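The records we work with from here on pair a chain with its fold. These numbers are not coordinates but entries in a learned vocabulary of local backbone shapes. To see the layout at work, look at the sequence and tokens printed below:
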Amino acid sequence: MRAEDIILKPLLTEKGYDGIAGMKYTFIVAKSANKIQIKQAVEELFSVEVKSVNTLNCKGKLKRQGRTMGYTSSYKKAVVQLKENSKPIEFFNSLS
């Protein structure tokens, strides 16, 4: 898989904003990607050095509108910690 296929989009939440100061960035990634592939994709796309990658699978929530019920989409989330000597990711700098 290409790096663009692995990193789908950044996940911008309150907890994610708190991690930016500590060089922790959160992304939604492909469900089939493993930690090594995620690390290589982030290093390739953003030209940074990755220290660690933590992943978790998020199940979709049950939503209801009237008598119609369904689930939101499930996704995989990755929290990427950069090394101290690495430069920060520029996209997130404008947000904090």
